[in-house]
Structure formats: C-alpha cells, structure tokens
Write a structure and sequence with these properties.
Helices cover 10% and strands 33% of the residues. It is mostly beta strands. It has one domain: SOS response associated peptidase-like (hypothetical protein yedk fold), CATH 3.90.1680.10. Strands 1, 2, 3, 4, 5, 6, 7, 8, 9, 10, 11 and 12 form a 12-stranded mixed β-sheet that branches.
C-alpha cells in the first residue's frame, strides 16, 4: 500500500496533465489527510465533453474528520482493486465511476531487505511526472460547501520484479496503478466497472526506477495531523 507520495508541482499540472492547477497550495509530500490535487472528468457545465479539471482533495477516502465519534480511526488511502466494489468506504464511488488521476512525481514504500524498514522513492526511469489511478468522492460540509477526498487503487505485485521488494516479509506485495499518459482520457472516460478494471495493471519494471530515500525529520507527519 502507498501512504506517502510526492505530489506533482503546480507548474506540471498544465504542462504535463493539461489542466489548470487548483487555486489553493499543497505540500510537496502527501500523507494521510493532507490535501493534494486530483484530476477528474470536468462537470457537465463545461462545453468540452472530454475536458478535465483539477481540484484539491484529501488523501484518504474517509477523512479523519468524517469518522463519527466513538468509531475507531481507520485508513482508506488505498483500495484493493479486487474488492473495491465490495468495501463500504469505496463501493459507491467505484460503482458511479468516480475515477481520477493522482498527479505524482514519486511514491514511497518501505523495503525490509536490510532487516529493518528503509523508505524507498519510486518513480519513472526518465524522471517524468506520472499519474496514479484513483477514485474520489464528495462530502457536503454544510455552510462550508463541498469537500473532496480520494484513494489510490492497488493491485497484487507478488510477481513484479521491483514492487515485490517492498513491505514486510510475509505480507502480500501490493502496488499502485500507474496510468500511461496515452490512457489518461480512456481511464477517466470508462463507461463500466469492467472497462475501468482493464486499466488496473502493473507498470512495466523497465520503465521504473527506485532508490532509498529516508524520510526527512521535518516531513514526519504528526499522529493527529490533518494536513493544515
């Protein structure tokens, strides 16, 4: 699972993804409950039927502030592709095809090959920004207006030469889904859940690069952080 990633910079949003960036800023590294840009099909008010738009959303399908009092805090940063249509936190967005692209420069995973957890930075071999497949949902916050949240979709990576190197020994290996740029519009425009599933594949290892990159002390999120 991925719980920390480097969001694409503001200047990349238009140059690489073809969307105007949201007005509000976001952090370089994103953790649970931090706000970050996602890209979705534009609303029906846009003239172009295939237009995209970027908006800020909270990382984690059910933000901490939306968890009712007395309910144990749970994580929803990742949704398993195999069960996304069955889990209560995700099934509404999945069945409604609320698909999004999550603009990234890298994502981070722990490797235990040395006997202890070492954070690795994973991205594309050419260093280009990329997009991870996700789903989004909307929250009605009353007078405050609408808010959005998102999760990353993951697939089994037990046989992937690179992604099988991460997570604790004995745990199932999982990977986020990197969507190739030529498939951005096709993914967002999926007309059925079966069509959407056809995009949920592992990225070719020859197009990826990874190296150890320990977490800077100042970047460590506080346990109760809400990303503000």
């Amino acid at each position: 699972m991925c719980t920390n990633y480097a969001a694409a910079r503001r200047d990349y949003l238009f140059r690489h993804y073809g969307v105007l960036p949201p007005d509000d800023p976001w952090r370089d590294e994103i953790f649970k409950d931090y706000a970050a840009p996602v890209i979705r099909r534009a609303s029906a008010t846009h003239n172009a039927p295939d237009a995209r738009e970027a908006l800020l959303a909270t990382f984690g399908m059910v933000p901490r502030k939306q968890i009712p009092p007395g309910v144990k805090v749970f994580d929803t940063m990742n949704a398993r592709a195999e069960s996304v249509g069955e889990r209560r936190s995700f099934n509404g967005a999945w069945k409604n095809l609320q698909l999004c692209l999550i603009p990234c420069e890298a994502f981070f995973e722990p490797s235990y090959e040395t006997g202890k957890a070492v954070r690795w930075r994973i991205g594309l071999a050419d260093g280009a920004p990329f997009a991870i497949a996700g789903i989004w949902r909307e929250w009605d916050e009353g007078e405050a207006g609408k808010a959005y949240s998102f999760t990353m979709l993951t697939v089994n990576a037990n046989d992937h030469p690179l992604m099988k190197r991460f997570h604790k020994p004995g745990d199932e290996k999982r990977s986020v889904v990197i969507v190739p740029p030529p498939e951005y519009e096709n993914w967002l425009a999926s007309r059925s859940m079966d069509e959407a599933r056809s995009f949920l594949n592992l990225y070719p290892v020859e197009g990826m690069a990874a190296e150890p990159q320990p977490l800077p002390p100042r970047a460590t999120p506080k346990p109760d952080s809400n990303g503000q």
